[in-house]
Amino acid sequence: MLIYLLLIIVTASIWYVRRKYSFWADRDVPYAQPRFPFGNIQGIGRRLHSSQAMMKLYNELKPSGKSFGGIYFFTNPVALALDLDFVKNVLVRDFAHFHDRGVYYNEKDDPISGHLFNIEGSKWTNLRKKLIPTFSSGKMKMMCPIVVSVGDRFRECLEKCIAVDAEVEMKELLARFTTDVIGTCAFGIDCNSLNDPDAEFLRMGRKVFEVPRGRILKFFFMATFKEFSRRLHIKGTSDDVSKFFFKVVQETIEYREKNNVQRNDFMNLLMQLKNSGQLDDSGEDVGKLSMNEIVAQAFVFFLGGFETSSTTMSYCLYELSLNSQIQDRARQCVLDAVQKHGGLTYDALMDMPYIDQCINESLRKYPPGANLIRQVSQDYRVPGTNVVFPKGMNVMIPVYGIQHDPENYPDPERYDPDRFSPEASQFRKPYSFIPFGEGPRICIAARFGMLEARIGLSVLLTHFRFARCSKTNVPLVISSRHAVLTPEGGLWLKVEKLMS
Q: How far apart are CA 328 and CA 335, in angstroms?
C-alpha cells in the first residue's frame, strides 16, 4: 500500500513539474530548456554571477527575433526581455501593469526591508512622493560641500597608503570613502572608515553585499515564492545588521531632537518628514514617516551609496589605468572645470562632460544592477501577440546583456567614453542604456550617486595617476558571490602622486 502511495506521489510530482515547465511551449514562445529544480538559474551564486547567466540566456534566445523569450526561476515561468521596445513597454508605456519590482520584503518580521526599492502598490507611490524632494538638485547642492570634505580625507588616506606601497587595492579604499560619505550625509555620523578599515559601518555594508555561497538562490526563492516565504517568516536582512541600523538611526534622531541639531543632510530631511510631513508638487500633504520607515529609507540610502558608487568608481579607475590617453583627458576635464569655477564646487562638478562620459561608459560596461525585475500586477496581453502574462508573473530585463549587445554597442568589451558624447548620444537606441532603470521606478538617488562618483574621481585624478600593476587582473573576473557586479579579489592598481 505504501509503495502504491509513493508511486502516486512521484507520478503526480512529475506531472506537476512537466506541466509547469510546459508554460512557454504551450504558448509557442521560444524558451531556454529548464532543469529541475532550479529551472534556468542553475549555478548562479556558485559558478556564475546573475549578469552572466542572464546574458547567456539573452544571447541564446535573441536570434528568435521575438520581443521576449521564456525562462524559469525554479518552476515558475519568467519572461526575458529581448527587444528594446518591449523594455519600453514594461518600464514606461504599460507601467500600470508592471508597477512593482517583485522583490521580496517582509515588513512584519523584517521592518528594515520596507524601503522604497522593495515596497509595492499605493504604499510605494505615497512614499516616493514624500522622498522625491529630498533628492532635488537644490538638496544635492546643499550636500556637496560635505562630500567634498570627505574627498579631502580620502586624498590624505591614499597618500599615506602609497607612502608604504605604491600598489593599492582601490576597491576597498573606495568602499571606505563611500561609507564615510553616506555615514555623513545619511546619518550625520563620522564613520571614520578611511582611518579604520574595521569600522562598524563598513563591516555592516560588507555583510549585506558579500553573500555566502548558496544565499543567492535563497533570494531567488524568496522573490519567486514571496507569500510562502512570508508565512515562513523568512527575513532578507541579518538580525545584527537590522539591529545596528535601528540603533544608529534612533540614537541619532534622539540626540538631534534633544540638542536641536540642524544639518544639511539626508537624516535631517527624514526628520522633517517624521515631524511635519511633506507637501508634494501640487501642495497635497502626503503624510509623515514612521520610525520604521525612516530607518528603512536610511538603510537603503546607505546601501545604494555604499556599493554601487564604489564599484562604479572602481571600474572607471580600472579602465582609466589601462587607457592612459583617456585618463589624461579625464584629468584635464577636471582641472579645467576647477579652474573655471574657482575650486571643486557644485558648479564645477556639473561642468565636467568628459568625466560624465567616463562614468556612463563604466555604468554601461559594468552596470551595478545587472538585471531589472518587474512583476505583472494585472493580466497583460503582450502587444502584437496572443500571449497573456498572468498576474504575479515576473519579467526580467537583462541590463548587462542589453548593454553588451553588439547591435546596441559595437565592440561592446571596448571601453570608449565617446559612446556618450553629445553627438553619439543622439543616435543611441532608446532604452539601450538603463543602469538606473527607467520610468516611474527609476532609481530615486541616481543624481546623488553620480555626484558622489564625480567628486571621488575628481579628487583622485587631480592628485594621482593610476596604472596597472603585477596584481591587476586583466581581464577582470566578476565575483559570483556578490549581489552587484564586483571584481573578484578586489582591484589592485599602481598609484603615483602627481606633483602639485
A: 11
Neighbours of 186 (CB within 10 A): 27
CA distance 500 to 160: 16
409 and 400 in contact (C-beta within 8 Å)? no
C-alpha 159/C-alpha 499 separation (Å) is 12
Cβ pair 177, 154 in contact under 8 A? yes
Query: pLDDT tens digits for the chain (500 residues)?
Result: 667 666 666 565 566 667 889 999 999 999 999 998 888 988 887 788 899 999 999 999 999 999 999 999 999 999 999 999 999 999 999 999 999 998 888 888 899 999 888 898 888 998 888 888 878 888 889 889 989 999 999 999 999 999 999 999 999 999 899 989 988 887 888 888 888 887 888 788 777 776 665 566 677 777 778 888 888 888 888 888 899 889 989 999 998 988 988 877 788 888 888 877 554 444 444 568 889 989 998 888 887 777 788 899 999 999 999 999 999 999 999 999 999 999 999 999 999 999 999 999 999 999 988 999 999 999 999 999 999 999 999 999 999 999 999 999 999 999 999 999 999 999 999 999 999 999 999 998 888 899 999 999 999 999 999 999 999 999 988 888 777 888 888 899 999 999 86
Alpha carbons 491 and 479: distance in angstroms, whole number: 12
Query: What is the b/e burial string over 194-207, where b = at least 16 CB atoms within 10 angstroms of the residue's CB?
Result: beeeebebbebbee
Helix, strand, coil in percent for the chain, rounding step 5: 55, 10, 35
